[in-house]
Design a protein that fits this description.
54% of the residues lie in helices and 9% in strands. The chain has 21 helices and eight strands. Helix 7 packs parallel to helix 8. It is flat and about 70 Å long.
Length: 448
């Protein structure tokens, strides 16, 4: 996400690097490159012009602050402008003072609307809410089936009814939520191939009937300016409360994320980066600006890690590491925790500088599979006591995992090195770092 834009912006900042001050000439040159980078990223023309005009105005004539280079100062100016354009502050969804709160979900077909509805329900559960889903996309049986399946995965009830009346489904779902003490109802409405009168009328009727505390419009970030235009057209009639950007882990240039707040004048409230149910995050303008500028997003990375953090298990793990008893069973458990945090590319993108270093390396969620396959091909005794894995056992593990003996040898060697490194780090009292050795097991030869 944003790799190309980040690279282009970094190149633009080189125009002022090494200069004594920000001058008319180097500022004009840098602003010109920034405008090109934004337009190439499919940012709305008026938004790109507004950003660069403001940046130029703030930068012109500024002397260099002590201990800050012109490049750093210019980066800070662009960062502040991006934060402002993206919305300045995180905006939460609204809840009704009298439950159940109704959240109405709208969007075009293929935008990820139904998947987002389930993700939102899971996220609300993690926030202490007791949600229920309502399948009001009555025109596509596949949509109802999909929502029902996803609801089962996250253990959230879903209200369905065999009818073509979406307003009846919405109304009855709210009544059912009230009876069953559910404090939030998420209504998944029908999508269309484009914003049309029928779609608008149906959402307007449901809005009038159930009086939602929040209307969220879901847009596919991969469609760029089309997503922004669709959101603007829908908002002109329905007046929604916020935007959800999906598929930010795909081949998106970032234009929709940067443009939509300014064009629609409604906040982005959530971003989604994959199909898994735990790949939904509230939208923080400052964190997004950091990622656009290649600064990473360490705060979100830490938050994702904390979601998977089990303090009791961590203490046990720390004890095993310190006594040199950490084994492949423990490591396999750590791999599963990492996978729950989201896609590998998205996680790597949160580490400052890593996106640039791995720009031309294809990283997908299958990266860890060879390691998992080799561990799964070990017996329980071998996983618990790696030191017993001799030559014949290595051949069996290689055959069972579809890997070579050389790769099994490499795994064992790297695991041994990782144990030593982890023990050293634990001595420095840095708890919760059982995942630190991962890069040694998924180095360049293991990234696909």
């Amino acid at each position: 996400m944003f790799e190309d834009l980040s690279s282009r912006l970094e190149s633009a900042f080189k125009s002022v690097a090494g200069q004594a001050r920000l001058s008319d000439i180097n500022v004009a040159q840098t602003v010109r490159e920034i405008r090109r980078a934004l337009l190439d990223a499919d940012v709305n023309y008026q938004v790109a012009r507004s950003i660069t005009s403001s940046v130029k105005e703030k930068a012109l004539g500024r002397g260099v602050i002590a201990s800050v280079t012109p490049g750093q100062q210019f980066t800070k100016i662009v960062y502040d402008e991006l934060v402002d354009v993206l919305g300045s502050e995180k905006e939460d969804i609204g809840f009704s003072p009298v439950p159940p709160s109704v959240i109405l979900i709208a969007g075009l077909q293929g935008s990820g609307k139904t998947t987002f509805s389930a993700k939102l329900a899971k996220w609300l559960k993690s926030q202490g809410k007791n949600p229920m889903l309502a399948a009001a996309d009555v025109y596509r049986p596949a949509a109802i089936e999909q929502l029902t399946t996803l609801a089962g995965e996250i253990d959230v009830p879903v209200y369905t009814r065999d009818t073509r009346d979406a307003t009846a489904v919405a109304r009855e779902a709210v009544l059912e939520a009230r009876k069953s003490a559910r404090d939030v109802v998420i209504i998944d409405t029908a999508g269309r191939m484009h914003v049309d009168e029928q779609m608008m009328d149906e959402v307007a009727r449901i809005k009038s009937l159930v009086k939602p505390s929040e209307i969220l419009f879901v847009v596919d970030a991969m469609t760029g300016q089309d997503a922004v235009n669709t959101a603007r057209d829908f908002n002109d009639i329905v007046d929604f409360d916020g935007v959800v950007l999906t598929k930010l882990d795909g081949d998106t240039r970032g234009g929709a994320a940067i443009s939509i707040r300014s064009v629609v004048n409604k906040p982005i409230k959530f971003v989604s980066t994959g199909e898994k149910m735990d790949t939904l995050s509230p939208f923080y303008p400052d964190r997004m600006a950091q990622r656009i500028l290649g600064m990473g997003d360490v705060v979100t990375l830490v938050e994702k890690a904390q979601e998977q953090y089990d303090e009791v298990q961590a203490r046990k793990l720390q004890s095993k590491i310190m006594s040199n008893a950490f084994n492949f069973e423990d490591f396999y458990g750590q791999l599963q925790q990492i996978k729950k945090m989201g896609s590998m590319r998205d996680l790597i993108g949160m580490i400052p500088g890593m996106s640039k270093q791995l720009k031309d390396v294809e990283i997908d969620d299958d990266t860890l599979k060879p390691v998992e396959a080799m561990i799964n091909s070990m017996t329980l005794e071998e996983r618990r006591n790696p030191q017993i894995i001799n030559g014949s056992r290595r051949k069996r593990i290689a055959l069972g995992s579809g890997m070579s003996v050389k790769e099994v040898n490499g795994l064992l060697k790297q695991f041994s090195q990782m144990k030593k490194m982890m023990k050293t780090m634990k001595k420095m009292n840095r708890k919760g770092r059982g995942m630190e050795g991962l890069k040694h097991l998924t180095g360049p030869g293991r990234i696909h």
